[in-house]
């Protein structure tokens, strides 16, 4: 049996309560490209309608979707569902599933300030250094205006972890 090759990341879907506001935030604050403007999808016997029924089950009725793309060509689908629930605190990190996504910007502080100015918030008081006094690698957890958690890295993922960011930590299980 041969080893699998590393697959590339194609896209992620994010639920938001206000599609137009989310498109504005992600294009104006993060600079992502709008590939397809907000479009309505209805539960019917069309190819896309049947595919969505396979995924969501019967009774979803309709939703709206917009397609964006990041600077490194990763797709972002923004969904606004009919009867969408927007809990006061949707950050349930202890539950299985995706709890954040990360973007990269060399000026972590500036992007964090832009996110706050656009209605988001900081989940940490200030960016933290992975290797204080050694390397300039910084990160901060944020929340977009819609309650989705995002992280900002100053450098690429492999640079942050190649030197063993947690090597001094005890392995807890």
Q: Tell me the radius of gyration.
A: 19 Å
Order of helices and strands: EHEHEEEHEEEEH
pLDDT under 50 segments (min length 5)?
Answer: none
CATH topology descriptor of the largest domain:
Signal recognition particle alu RNA binding heterodimer, srp9/1
Strand content: 25-35%
Percent in helix: 10-25%
Task: Give the count of helical stretches.
Answer: 4
**DSSP E strands, number:** 9
Q: Using the coordinates above, name the CATH class of the largest domain.
A: Alpha Beta
Question: What's the N-to-C terminus distance?
Answer: 31 Å
Name the shape in a single word.
globular
Name of the CATH architecture of the largest domain: 2-Layer Sandwich
Q: What would the average pLDDT be, to the nearest integer?
A: 91
Q: Could you say which structural class the secondary elements and strand pairing correspond to? A: alpha+beta
The biggest sheet, with number of strands, parallel, antiparallel or mixed sense and barrel status, is: 5 strands, mixed
Count of all domains:
2
Domain VOC: 8-155
Keywords: Lyase, Metal-binding
GO molecular function: lyase activity; metal ion binding; methylmalonyl-CoA epimerase activity
InterPro entries: Glyas_Bleomycin-R_OHBP_Dase, Glyas_Fos-R_dOase_dom, Lactoylglutathione_lyase, MMCE/EMCE_epimerase, VOC_core
Characterise the protein shown here.
The chain folds into two domains: 1-83, 2,3-Dihydroxybiphenyl 1,2-Dioxygenase, domain 1 (Roll); 90-173, Signal recognition particle alu RNA binding heterodimer, srp9/1. It contains four helices and nine strands; from the N terminus they run E-H-E-H-E-E-E-H-E-E-E-E-H. It has helices at 19-28, 47-56, 108-117, 157-162; strands spanning 11-15, 33-42, 62-69, 75-81, 101-104, 121-122, 128-129, 138-143, 149-153. The strands form two sheets. Strands 5, 6, 7, 8 and 9 form a five-stranded mixed β-sheet that branches. The radius of gyration is 19 Å and the shape is globular. 17% of the residues are buried.
């Amino acid at each position: 049996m041969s080893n699998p090759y590393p697959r590339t990341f194609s896209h992620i879907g994010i639920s938001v309560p206000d599609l137009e506001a989310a498109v504005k935030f992600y294009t104006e604050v993060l600079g992502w490209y709008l590939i397809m403007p907000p479009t309505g999808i209805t539960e019917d016997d069309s190819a896309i309608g049947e595919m969505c029924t396979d995924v969501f089950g019967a009774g979803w009725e309709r939703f709206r979707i917009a397609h964006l793309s990041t600077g490194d060509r990763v797709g972002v689908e923004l969904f606004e569902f009919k009867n969408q629930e927007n809990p006061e605190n949707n950050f349930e990190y202890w539950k299985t599933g995706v709890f954040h996504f990360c973007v990269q910007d060399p000026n972590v502080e500036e992007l964090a300030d832009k996110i706050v100015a656009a209605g988001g918030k900081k989940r940490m008081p200030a960016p933290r250094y992975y290797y204080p006094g050694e390397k300039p690698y910084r990160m901060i957890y944020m929340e977009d205006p819609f309650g989705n958690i995002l992280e900002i890295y100053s450098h690429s993922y492999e640079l942050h972890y190649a030197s063993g960011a947690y090597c001094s930590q005890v392995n807890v299980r």
